[in-house]
TrEMBL record:
Protein name per its UniProtKB record: DUF547 domain-containing protein
Organism, scientific name: Lujinxingia vulgaris
Keywords: Signal
Name of one Pfam family that matches: DUF547
InterPro entries for this protein: DUF547
Superkingdom, natural source: Bacteria
Domain DUF547 as annotated: residue spans: 91-193
Signal sequence segment: 1-22
The keyword Cytoplasm belongs to this UniProt entry's keyword annotation: no
Length: 272
């Protein structure tokens, strides 16, 4: 079972009030097992079952998930999650672990929504992020523990914010594929580019750059020197991954500096 330190509990409580939780490792033997795998893991994990489900029920371009159709395939989703529960973290290298944890977050979120249909928003579900519901590598975890207590502090990659999906319309779109250890770097790059090239998440109007609220909540992840690919300024990070039109505007020395405005977040369920 998972062990949550007071600091993480306080951070999780804070998100419901005004902001997002910080990245702090959970106090669990799983952390040691993951670190062991990072140094010596040689195995891979088969995510093909999740890949099949996502390709059948997700429209990544529109950002929609067919939860009703997914409910019909609940047995396959349960089987995949059961396999995750029995994974051995010590046998997986860093990329395999990262892919597994992102997939675990997304698959557990899908199950949470399916279990509560009909529902208008994930926030209508009791304690959706704080209650331990997802077993990964033998440990029962909450969604917050997976994201903020493992993924962010262990792997320090801001691109994960465009990969984990919270089942809301304003969340970066869920991919139509599962993440894999062999492809996770390229997959994270692709999802980040897809998000920051989509006017729903990044656009310029006049001298104002409108950005997804996620880059406000987790802004420090994009500018923290310890994080992979971080930049000094948030706008510089956007420039790397955004569309050519926005990049050209940001690189135009003759144009005025842009002001950043973070867009309102729509928590309605990401259904068609």
């Amino acid at each position: 079972m998972s062990l949550r330190p007071p600091a993480l509990l306080a951070a999780i409580a804070l998100v419901s009030a005004c902001s997002a939780p910080g990245a702090e490792l959970i106090d669990s033997p799983l952390v040691d097992e993951l670190r062991t795998g990072q140094s010596s893991g040689t195995q891979s994990f088969d995510h093909s079952a999740l890949d099949t489900l996502l390709s059948a029920h997700v429209n990544a371009e529109a950002g929609h998930v067919d939860y009703t159709g997914l409910r019909d395939d609940r047995a396959e989703l349960d089987a995949y999650l059961s396999a995750l529960a029995e994974a051995d973290a010590t046998t997986l290298n860093e990329d395999e672990q990262l892919a597994m944890l992102i997939n675990a977050y997304n698959a557990c979120t899908l199950r949470l929504i399916v279990d509560n249909l009909p529902v208008d928003s994930i926030r209508d579900i009791s304690d959706p992020w704080g209650e331990p519901r997802c077993e990964v590598a033998g440990y029962l975890l909450s969604l917050d523990e997976i994201e903020h207590g493992l993924i962010r502090p262990l792997y320090e990659d801001p691109r994960i914010h465009f990969a984990v999906n919270c089942a809301a319309r304003s969340c970066p779109h869920l991919a139509e594929h599962a993440y894999t250890g062999a492809e996770v770097d390229a997959q994270l790059d692709a999802r980040t580019r897809a998000s920051l090239s989509d006017p729903k998440f990044a656009r310029i109007e006049g001298d104002t750059l409108y950005l997804t609220k996620i880059m406000d909540w987790y802004g420090s992840d994009f500018t923290d020197p310890a994080y992979q690919g971080s930049t000094t300024e948030l706008v510089d990070y956007v420039e790397i991954y955004t569309s050519e039109a926005i990049r050209a505007r940001l690189q135009n020395d003759d144009a005025p500096n842009v002001d950043i405005v973070f867009m309102d977040y729509d928590w309605a369920l990401n259904t068609p």
